[in-house]
Structure formats: C-alpha cells, structure tokens
Amino acid sequence: MIQRAFIGSLIILSSCFLFSCSKDKPAASTPPVTGGPGEVVGGTYSSDDLLVFKQMAIYGSALRIINKWPKKVAYYIVDTQYDYLTQEVDAVLKEINSLLDTNLVLTRTNVRSESNVQIFFTDRNTYLMAEPDAAPTLYNSTYGGLSYLRQQEGTLTSGSVFVDMERAKDNIPVQRYLVHHEIMHSLGFRGHATLTGIYTVLFYYTLMPYILNYTPFDKRMIQLLYNPLIKEGMGEEQVDKIVKAL
C-alpha cells in the first residue's frame, strides 16, 4: 500500500521553544491551578489523561500513529565536556528505567556506532553538520532544542537529541529543562500538551518556573506509552479502546 511505503520512510521532528535565559529564574517548579479531574473513561485514566496522551503520542505524528522503541534503546553523548549534563542524562535514563521495568531498557553507551540516539550539547551549526535533514525545522527558528527521530511503521529506529548550548549558555535550569523535555520527546512523544491545568514538561509553551524533573503526570504518560497493550503503529481509535479498558 502507498501509505505503508510512506510510513517506512517517515522522519519525525519535535522541538521546544526558546526561553528567556536570565540567570535569576527560580529553580523550583509549582503546578498551575487546575479545575479538577476530568471524567473517568476507564478504571485508570480520566478523559483529560486520554486527550493529552493522544496530543503528545499521536497527534504530533504526521500519520497520527503511536511511535515507540522496541525493547532497548542506547543513547550516546557526542559532547562530553559538560560533566553535569552527562550526570543529568544518566539520572533521567535511570528514572525512566525505574518506571518501565523491562518494557523498555534505556542505556548510555560510550561507543557511537552502538547507539540508537545521539545527544548533542552544542550550537545549531555543529548539530546540523551531523543531522542535516533537521535543517528545514531548525533554521530561522527560535527553538532551543530538538528531538529528531526516524521510524518505520511506528517502530523508532534511530535519531538524535539537540540542546542549543549557544542559546542556553550559562543557564543551567534551561539546560536541565531541555534535557528532560527532549529525552521525553525521544521516547516517542511527538507532540505537546495543550490542555490548561496539565502540569507536564511537554506543555506546548514553557511553564515557569522551569520544570526540572518529570512530573507525576509525565511518569504516568511514559508508563502508558510503554504499556505492552499499546502497540507501535496504533491509531487513535485503537488507543481509545485500549485505554478505556485499563
């Protein structure tokens, strides 16, 4: 089928907006006021949960399908001069592993050829020399980071994560926020949440103060995406049916 051939070559990008980089931004994060929980659609997730999950995991995909990794994915840090960001990446991968048990195992490798995702802490010109296909999205933009992934029929195969260190220079809270934001995108969350009151690192604009850790909502969404019942390539109707039965 024509659609299947197109899926096999589809490349997906996700990016976050550039933020003010003043050094005096508070490091702590507090959730916005919410209007109460949404209607429960199943035993576990509310209607708001389901809507935002689809915004982040389906609507951001050009074909509106679930994108996820197989059992293992290895990350490689290209720029190792930032020891504190290497530690941040290690902490993020460890936290996600603790959430997913054996449904997905994330590792960091020191061998570039063994990696699935390469992480760049650099300027955009250096990044685009390594990932030139990202140029149409990154050039003339105000994005402070990018997650660039390749997939085939919903199964993620390779990609990269970019944090613009030139724009986020000397602002560690922004850098930490971008690490969490883009690594969560790299799991297969191609879109952003737009529902007011949802407190997530993937909100469609940057919540202030910066979110420097995954929120309880983020963790639930990561677990839902890698629930074995949610399969790569699933469309919206299939996801609705599965989530409402959980």
UniProtKB/TrEMBL annotation:
It comes from Terrimonas rubra. The lineage of its organism: Bacteria, Pseudomonadati, Bacteroidota, Chitinophagia, Chitinophagales. SUPFAM superfamilies: Metalloproteases ('zincins'), catalytic domain. Residues 1-20 form the signal peptide. This is DUF2927 domain-containing protein. Keywords: Signal. The keyword Signal applies.
